[in-house]
Amino acid sequence: MARFFVEPDQISHDGFITITGSDVKHMRDVLRMARGDTFVACDSTGTEYSCELEAFLDGNAIGHVLARRAGETEPLVPVTLLQGIPKGDKMELIIQKNIELGVNRIIPVMMERSVVRFKDDKDKDKKTERWNRIAMEAAKQCGRLKVPQVLRPMSLKEALRQLEPVDLKIVPYENEQELRLKAVLQGSRIASVSFLIGPEGGIAEAELALLKEADFTSVSLGKRILRTETAGFAVMSAIRYELGD
Hints:
The chain is of the alpha/beta class. It has helices at 22-30, 90-101, 121-142, 156-162, 181-185, 205-213, 228-242; strands at 3-5, 16-19, 38-42, 47-57, 60-70, 79-84, 105-110, 149-150, 154-155, 168-172, 193-197, 217-219. It contains 7 helices and 12 strands. The strands form 2 sheets. Strands 6, 7, 8, 9, 10, 11 and 12 form a 7-stranded parallel β-sheet that branches. Helix 2 (90-101) runs parallel beside helix 3 (121-142).
């Protein structure tokens, strides 16, 4: 069933919901929805609404709320991913799949060994807008109740300032030989996690020192070195498995 995201003020007290923006075009021209078709809407508070389309009116889609319920698809343990920006379109795959796995926020980080360089602020804004569109589509596809935010590209120092207090901060590091991710996660009562994945060239020593100053623990993901677009998936899968989420 089609799924859309709304703000609470788009839902009236008399049981009607208003869909706006590009979703209207998608409903009308792509899905070819008509009066009586049903869809699901999610607000930013974690509530799901089963709705029936009433009409397209003044550029909006008007639906009637049939039922509402508290959604259950959001992860219990919030996770923030700091991703060293990779080359090409890998960031799009990273955003899409990590959101499916339950990441709550993604911070793109411009690191010393990142190949990608932005021409100016306009270039950053354009990329951020595209990444957030991908985030929304991924959230719709996998049944999330909220759309995880992808922040604007920033330096590592700026990214660390963006972090809220969390129970666990980890950084997979290829030269870490002793401490495995499993050992850090097992048997712990963890309510929130942040982790950083380096770009293709890895994490520079000065960056690792900065992360450790910020209380990040370096961990090993095993005997094999994973690509930057694979490492985040491995960490997210382990987090969700070990924390029962």
